[in-house]
Amino acid sequence: MKNLKIFQIIFILITCIVLNNGYASIEDGYRALLSNKVEEARVIFTEESDSFFDKNKAKGYLGLTFVEMWYLNQDKILDLCFKAVELDKSPRILDPCGERFYWAARSVNREYQAKLTKLSRELIQKWPGESFASNLLGELENFYIADGDLKKAQRVVKQLGVIKEWKYVGPFNNSSNSSFYKNLAPENGFDFSETYDGENGIEVKWNDLKGVDYTPWVFMDFHQNIEKSMNYFATSVHSDKDQKVLVSFGVSGSYSLWINTKKVLEKLKFQNTGMDAFQIPVKLLKGQNDILLKLGHSAEKQSNFSLRILDKNKNPLNLKIEPKSQKKASQKAVKITLLENPNMKSLKADSRKGKLGASLILLNELINIEALDEAIALASKLKLKFPQSAWINNRLSEIYFRRGDRTLGQLYIDRSYR
After folding, report:
1. pLDDT tops 80 at residue 226
2. Which of 98, 220, 279, 283 is most exposed by smallest CB count within 10 Å?
């Protein structure tokens, strides 16, 4: 018995040493990548992918996706992500690979349909309410729509529990995002019989908005062909008791969101996110609970959003939805701590410790959710260590193009190819 315990201790020590050495070699791979030594990085990540331990293998495959990104090899990136996820279905692997899986689903890549369908089912059970799971499930509708099977697409949306019953009013003028710097009439309380002066002085009234039931998003393109505009969306949910919930929200546009007249979320600059990007802890009261969304787009595009209500375990709540008249909305934002994605929290902690792999994954994630100020701060910090890095210059170009600054975007593209 004593010898067995000694053997177990020795095994654990050896395992820790191997894992730590593996992690160090992974860091060496990212250091080589940031130093423009791409093929050296490939060798290091390939060696790691041959490791005895599945988690180390997965890290190696993930590292190789960054190498293939350099060469824009989309199919290879996708294959490597599948290999990584087969070995390790943790958020640290899933978050950076998520965008690749979404791309395959959006492009209706038949080669990967069965794999993506199986993976989405596994993830939504293991990680309900996490963006990589809900986004992948939502993207699979593209396969069903392409096959003309709208019933399957509808079942996906129903499984996600997205709110689809809304009233909306607009458009109101939003040139230069101007409508977000004034309080318009619907924010003073309303019933649905009211009319208002809309864009160009044209009278606007509340309309039924029944979201298309085969997509988890409400796309204004389907309802209103007016760009650079702002609309209000209103609905109410009925709760049979007082309860704490998460309002889970994804968006493309600038926005203000009120729950029971309290402003719980606001962004005056355009932001483009996936589903479940913001998870807001709120308390629903027994009876009627009101939701009001102010949503606009200052560019020549339309806005869209997705909103659902989750329980404490992040499972969708099937509440009765019925838009009703609302009271005056408060203009003062309530101080609420958003529920942070646990993986993002972990990535930020590792990035602060100087871990390069975590920093690169975090940078991509910040760009994907358009947290562009944070992304610039992180990229600038990395650039101090790697001033000639083509990879960092490429990321900075993406950030500035998303910000609408084509001059700086082009400058960093030029630098990345020198």
Report:
1. no
2. 283
